[in-house]
Amino acid sequence: MITTTIPESRGYIGKSVLYMAMELSNATWKLGFSNAERNRIVTLDAGDWIALSKQIDLARKKLHLPEGCRIVSCYEAGRGGFWIHRMLEENGILNLIFDSSSMEVNRRRRRTKTDKVDVDALLRLLQRYLNGERKAVSVVRVPTAQEEDQRRLNREREQLIKERSAPSTRIKSLLALLGIRMKITKNFPSELEKTTKDASGNELMPQLKAELLREYKRYQLVVEQIKILHDEQKRRVKEEKTQVIEQIIGLMLFKGIGWQSSWILVMEFFLDGENLKIGAN
After folding, report:
1. Is residue 226 domain-shared with residue 247, that is, in the same domain?
2. How far are the Cα atoms of 145, 153, 181 from residue 128, in angstroms, in the given order?
3. pLDDT digit string (tens) for 207-261?
4. Number of compact structural domains in the chain
């Protein structure tokens, strides 16, 4: 299990530390460096690790920090996921991922949904946190690659359920234009074939029927994929004898917690390397 070791504040007071904050986007990474007295801001192409390494060395020299000083970095949780964190840690850099929802926002300035905390603010937040202000921000726990992979099945299923509503809604809308009420079942194509007129008695146009059938095929494709994932969940519960599966089975014993709820609870909330106590006295 990968866990970010939260350093004690006393280990940083009076010590040489290079603080690094990263503002990430698809195209560029904006880096902020500090020695707690002076800041240095640079921008480089996203994912350019060679340039990042060079900028770290340059920042250390520009900020007059000794070679081999401790480097602590941070960035805001987002679509970038955890691969950047793992790369930083593999290169000997202690990294913290800050929970976006826990960050302080300047109330005098309206913040749009797409705004990010700027790199200067991240630098200040990182130093405050390391100097003992643990309530200044929440640090995200980083799962292992294996834990992330175990969550894929459930998250794919949730995404497919969202996608299923698009063709379903489209079919219902098209039928509503004609004043036709018809359930979307496996018999939908045959029922549609039997329907020759709309609610006004006008003949159904061939292109409209063809569109309805195409939307139904899209709907069925998603339904079939959801079933495949559901069958895979059943297979894992039946065949795999892991702690995670035992936790899922244990939760299902409780009244009011169903199959999918048990799976989601374990994969999204209890998959942290700690034991979930089921049926404790």
Report:
1. no
2. 30, 38, 61
3. 999 999 999 999 999 999 999 998 988 888 888 888 888 888 888 888 778 778 8
4. 3
Q: Write out the residue range of the structural domain in which residue 281 sits.
A: 240-281
CA distance 209 to 72: 61
Per-residue pLDDT of 178-192, as tens digits, reads 899 899 999 999 999
Question: Which amino acid does the sequence have at 270?
Answer: F
pLDDT band (50, 70, 90) for residue 135: confident
Which of 97, 93, 16, 21 has its CA nearest to residue 60?
A: 16
In a domain, 2, yes or no: no
pLDDT tens digits, 83-122: 999 999 999 999 999 988 887 654 344 444 334 568 999 9
Same domain, 93 and 209: no
Q: Are residues 123 and 218 in the same domain?
A: no
Would you say residue 61 lies in a domain?
Answer: yes
The C-alpha atoms of residue 219 and residue 212 are separated, in whole angstroms, by 10
